[in-house]
Amino acid sequence: MQAIGTLYFFCGKMGAGKSTYSLTLAQEKNAVLLSEDDWLSALYPNQINSFDDYLIFSRRMKPLVHDHVQRILKTGTSVVMDFPANTKSQRKGFLELANAISASHELIFLDRNDARCLQQIAQRRQAQPERQAFDIEEMFYHVSTYFDVPSDAEMLNIRVVRD
Q: Which domain of life is it from (predicted)?
C-alpha cells in the first residue's frame, strides 16, 4: 500500500500569522506549500478589488486546487495549505478532501488576540505596500465576523498555537 501524505491547514483571524507559520511548517515537514494568495494573483491578476471579488475567485479555483492537492498527497508528499479554514464549512471541505483519500490531517489554529493581529497587519502593510488597500483595520473586523473558533465536534485533529 502506498503512503499518503498529511494535509496541514490553518485557521486564525486575519493577521494571526498563518502565511508565516505555513512557510515554516512546509520547510520543517519538507512538504509542498500552496498559497491561496499566490494562486489568486497568478490566475486572476488585478481582478480582485473587493472582498466580494475575493469570494468569487476563491470559490472558482477550489475544484482545481482540491484535485491538485489530492494528487500530491497520493504521492506520499505532505501538503501545507495557506488557504483559510476559518469557518466550519471551509474546515469541513478540508476534512472531506483528506478523508476521501484516507490522508491524515492537522488543523493548526493560531489563537491570537485582536491587538496582535492588528499589529501584524500594520507590519504587513509596511512590508507589502500592494496590500495597503485590504490590510486595514476595517477589513480585519469585517473578515472577523466570518471567523468560527474550531471545536472538537468538527472531528478534526486540532493543534492550538498560542503565544
A: Bacteria
